[in-house]
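Note to self: the last two entries modelled the partners one at a time, which told us nothing about the interface. This time every component goes in together.
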Amino acid sequence: MNLPKVLVIVGPTASGKTLLALQIAQSIPAEIISADSRQVYRHLDIGTAKPSRTELLQVPHHCIDIREPNEKFNAGDFQTLGRKIIDEILLRKKLPIVCGGTGLYVQALIDGFFEQPEFSGEIRAELERRIESEGKEALYRELQRVDPASAATMDASKHRRVIRALEVYYETGIPISQFHANHQKDELYDATWIGLRWERSMLYQRINDRVERMFADGFLDEVKQLQAMGFDDRVQALQTVGYKEAFQYLRGEISYERMIELMKQNTRRFAKRQMTWFRKEPRIHWYNIAHEFEIAPIAKNILKKM
RNA sequence: GGGUAGGUAGCGAAGUGGUUAAACGCAACAGACUGUAAAUCUGUCGCCUACGGGCUUCGGAGGUUCGAAUCCUUCCCUACCCA
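The predicted structure of the combined assembly is written out below.
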């Protein structure tokens, strides 16, 4: 069986994934698929550290700027879209490079979710309403009744997952735990997983520096622009590190200094969560890195294997 | 030089004689995650641990007491006020 080769580049935010992907794409015919849950949205540029205009022109990029901030996009959409794009890239005889820090998106794309028909969204809307009126506990008890196996893997506090499990059950009549049990990882690609790993203190320093640079680059104007377009942090796309703090500042809830401090801190925490996710992924070949100019040799090294 | 208020774990801050290794908050660390994931949550957090426990703490040194972070003496330090 000869599966098509795909390169997967992961790592925490500010680890240099974008640069690595670009360098590889400069040496061999390749296209980049961003696996980043926030770069899919237009108008969120600086705060999501989206590749620059020139970078986007250098190498074809996908899954960037494909939705408005108030439009729906989730890991399932990413799976469908991303796989379609990979097929197209392969037809062009190029290497698909999946590059991004959203672990769930990478998982969806490479391993796949269980098959599920299109949901209407009405049941979910109803569940959202009920969790407001009846509370998390009530819905969790309902899940315990309806799908005890799935309930056992969570508790009432995980209301996102509770809602999803109930949604699947009411939409399909089948418990989500059963879907999970029956689902095998898809084997569509010969994926090479690459991870960039920095010493913690260095990564944190890079994050702090990058936040400063974002403000120098006009991050606040970007947020004001979004505000002018009528968006605020009630839309999921703007439930995002950096934007949340900026909206708080613009509403006068926190000081300018506090906003920056919080942005750095929350980005650091985000990076930590990403590391927790990727650490448990055994397919990743980790490259330890201590300076940005090590990315070029790493790119060379990876190319040898492709 | 005089006065006042203080010095508690990485930080902030309770506690003012007896289940106090010390509330709480923050930071930090660890973890979970199958269609909102930059989201949503959980745990640990003096030191050691074979996880049963063991050991050392509340500015320093002495003392009182069966027993002290809590009382006394003394020294050191910080902040503010007066000179």
